[in-house]
Amino acid sequence: MFLMGSSRHRMTPDGSLIIRNMEQKDAGVYGCLASNLAGTDTQTSVLTYIESPVVIVVLSEILIGLGETTILACSASGIPQPEIRWFKGKVC
């Protein structure tokens, strides 16, 4: 699929491809094709989409009595899926 004419894809005079407003659906393999009277050559690049992690903590302050059990819930979203680690005191 040639990308010419798209409102988000533009080719510069030197042949570079500019993708504006990157979306997850833009990830994939892109190919560059060059040709003249002597022949044709191609190269490919893999474009990977990533998102910064967003941490979701349900409760930020919990009171618990001596000998009781609690669960500290934490989840995070991001691409690729972030690793979650817990710290006591200052976060590294």
Would you give an account of this structure?
The chain has 92 residues and is an all-beta fold. The chain has a domain at 9-47. It is built from no helices and six strands. It has strands spanning 9-11, 17-19, 28-36, 39-47, 51-57, 74-79. The strands form three sheets. It has a two-stranded antiparallel sheet with strand order 1-2. A two-stranded antiparallel sheet has the order 3-4. The mean pLDDT is 89.
Key terms for this structure?
Ig-like_dom_sf; two-stranded antiparallel ribbon; mainly beta; rod-shaped; Ig-like_fold; 92 residues; repeat; immunoglobulin domain
Distance between the termini: 46 Å
The helix content, as a percent range, equals under 10%
- Report the total helices: 0
Would you report the number of β strands? 6
Rg (C-alpha, Å) = 24 Å
Q: Taking strands numbered 1, 2, ... along the chain, how are they ordered across the largest sheet?
A: 1-2
* Main beta-sheet strand count, sense and barrel state: 2 strands, antiparallel
Question: What class, by secondary structure content?
Answer: mainly beta
The low-pLDDT segments are none
Taken as a percent bin, the fraction of beta residues is: 35-45%
Shape: rod-shaped
Order of helices and strands: EEEEEE
Arithmetic mean of pLDDT: 89
